[in-house]
Amino acid sequence: MDILLDPSSWVALLTLTFLEIVLGIDNIIFISIVSNKLPDSQQQKARTWGLSLALLMRVGMLLAITWIIKFKEPVLTVFETGFSIRDIILALGGLFLLYKSTMEIHQKMEGATHKAGSSKKASLQSVILQIIMLDIIFSFDSILTAVGLTEELLLMIIAVVISIGVMLLYAKKISEFIGQHPTLEILALSFLILIGFMLLIEALHYHVPKGYIYFAVFFSLMVELINMRIRKPKKPVKLHKRIEE
Amino acid sequence: MIKWIRELYGQYKEYVRVDLLMYGVLILMILIYVVISALTS
Questions:
Q1: Which of A125, A153, A233, B14, by CA, is between 20 and 30 Å from A90?
Q2: Most A CBs within 10 Å: which of B5, B17, B22, B23, as the mutation test of the A interface?
Q3: Do B25 and A92 touch (CB under 8 A)?
């Protein structure tokens, strides 16, 4: 619990929670499409159960990935440099974040929005299972982001719990807020590029103090908050969604 | 169950392909580690 007395831990927690919430909002659209296969009276129940069980799976994944990246013995040598399982995962994870965030930015700016197919009726259990599976699949980037931003497992778990809790309670409000300020979403994706690059160079054995990343993220967010305060609100661009109902 | 998973994959494959590939890589890494640990111990 000593880590919670350290101010840098709070900065890490805030940064990670912000990213988890902003980037997780997109997943809510998929969850909403799946839960709409149920009668109105069961939809909220399915979302709550699905996301709560998905939370447990995410914590399990965080435990697994923090365990795997402890494997530091070299298993591969390239140009006389040894690479461990940890290095390989960080390198591939970094490339994945760079790829995914670039693709997401492209999708949001220039991509097409797909219409969800006609929703067949489904049972409550089947919908909960679908929500859990989709959330697990879509949470891979958020797990890598957590690993890139902090080494403290407790902070990662707290950020994931807060973000899922916030999404369960305020998904609609946050979604509307981001709709009014799409810059926040693009900034969050840009931060993923930063984190992806950091994971990549860590895999090449260059250590980057996490404080540099926190500074970049906070400075950028402060500039945007000032922007939001002092500039007259205009009609924002509408980012393209991957899928809509 | 397999049929259900295949249907689900068919519905969302466009959005989940790369993420699933990463999961595959992760599982492969764990298997490699387990095999190497078993061989060297």
A1: B14
A2: B22
A3: yes
